[in-house]
Write a structure and sequence with these properties.
There is one protein chain. The protein has about 200 residues and is an alpha+beta fold. About 20% of the residues lie in helices and about 40% in strands. It has a 9-stranded antiparallel beta sheet, with helices on both faces. Strand 2 and strand 3 form a beta hairpin. The radius of gyration is 16 Å and the shape is globular.
Length: about 200
């Protein structure tokens, strides 16, 4: 699947990372672990955010959310969401924050059939406590159809490099093409909200 480049905007991560749970519950009926780009990811956190939004995050087995290098996030809406609005809203919300981040840059692409968008972007952070890092994110916006019912998924992949911001940004930039291809070619599993939710 190829994506047509649409525009370049300044964007920063819009999905939050949360502490892992002792026994996270699979709310979306996704068989695990998930194999992604040669790495196995295990469910580390899940939450029914609302009646229509369910989220799950996955980490490699040897990583913790406090200092991860890779993360997968499934944000599933069991209702129809206007794709263009979702992408634009994210961009507009984050542009305000990104003015203070010189490493932040982004691209937005649309699939040929118009059913998906990909927003990929770099951000950086230098916390008072802990290591500085550059983070590369790919958010894949997907409209799902099953019969007459429509739902919406934001599948997000984050990769962090810690240490010197300039060299981390260059290193992640060199990996961008491979990471984008991996996300575009990833076969999204069938998603079904668990009956007890």
């Amino acid at each position: 699947m190829t994506f047509r480049k649409i525009t370049a905007l300044v964007l920063i991560s819009a999905f939050s990372f949360v502490k892992a749970q002792e026994n996270a519950t699979d709310l979306l009926s996704i068989p695990g672990p998930i194999e992604y780009d040669g790495t196995e990811f295990f469910l580390s956190w899940s939450k029914p955010v609302s009646k229509t939004l369910f989220r799950q995050q996955y980490l490699p087995s040897d990583e913790r959310i406090e200092h991860f290098t890779q993360l997968l996030d499934f944000s599933f809406f069991n209702k129809e969401i206007e794709m263009d609005l979702a992408v634009r809203q994210k961009v507009e919300d984050i542009q305000k924050i990104a003015k203070s981040d010189k490493f932040a840059k982004v691209n937005v692409a649309e699939s040929p059939d118009g059913k998906e968008y990909i927003v990929d972007y770099f951000t950086s952070e230098s916390p008072e406590k802990g290591d500085s890092f550059v983070e590369y994110n790919i958010d894949r916006f997907i409209t799902l159809e099953k019969g007459n019912a429509k739902s919406f998924l934001i599948l997000s992949y984050a990769k962090r490099m810690y240490g010197d911001l300039k060299s981390s940004a260059k290193s992640l930039a060199r990996q961008r093409d491979h990471l984008m291809t991996t996300m575009i070619e990833y076969k999204v599993p069938d998603i079904k909200v668990a009956d007890n939710q």
